[in-house]
Amino acid sequence: MLDKKSKEKIIKKYRVHDTDTGSPQVQIAILTEEIKELTEHLKLHKHDYSSRRGLLKKVGERRKLLKYLQKESFEQFKALAEKLKLKIATKLQAEEEEEKLKEKKYGVVEETEDTELIADATEDNA
């Protein structure tokens, strides 16, 4: 479990505004740190099943919060994942690089309002 000082440090680093203590970003950051501590503990104490159960609960809670943040604000989710160096961040970066390569290779043009209007007009005529 995190001591008070390290928890306050994490809150200061990841808070959204000055009085923020419970935003998803802060909760995810705290859970990530607790997960790291429990993982290290379990490397030394392999038969500590109570701690293993606690670890799984924390991982599940973090997963729920990450899913919520991804749904509500993808940009904040992405920034937090990169800051915390979560596996999902490397996955997202790989996907972005792959998209850029495809765009470069095929010259993909992003859809704009004009192309949508043209598509709507052709559907109406048909």
UniProtKB/TrEMBL annotation:
UniProt keyword annotation of Cell membrane present: no
Any one Gene Ontology molecular-function term assigned to this protein's record: rRNA binding
GO aspect biological process, one term: translation
Gene3D superfamilies the record matches: 6.10.250.3130, S15/NS1, RNA-binding (1.10.287.10)
SUPFAM superfamilies per UniProt: S15/NS1 RNA-binding domain
Family matches, as Pfam families: Ribosomal_S15 (PF00312)
Keyword terms: Ribonucleoprotein, Ribosomal protein, RNA-binding, rRNA-binding
Domain of life: Bacteria
GO cellular component, one term: cytosolic small ribosomal subunit
Stated role: One of the primary rRNA binding proteins, it binds directly to 16S rRNA where it helps nucleate assembly of the platform of the 30S subunit by binding and bridging several RNA helices of the 16S rRNA. Forms an intersubunit bridge (bridge B4) with the 23S rRNA of the 50S subunit in the ribosome.
Family assignment from sequence similarity: Belongs to the universal ribosomal protein uS15 family.
Assembly and binders: Part of the 30S ribosomal subunit. Forms a bridge to the 50S subunit in the 70S ribosome, contacting the 23S rRNA.
Entry-linked NCBIfam families: S15_bact
Protein name: Small ribosomal subunit protein uS15
Species classification: Bacteria, Candidatus Falkowiibacteriota
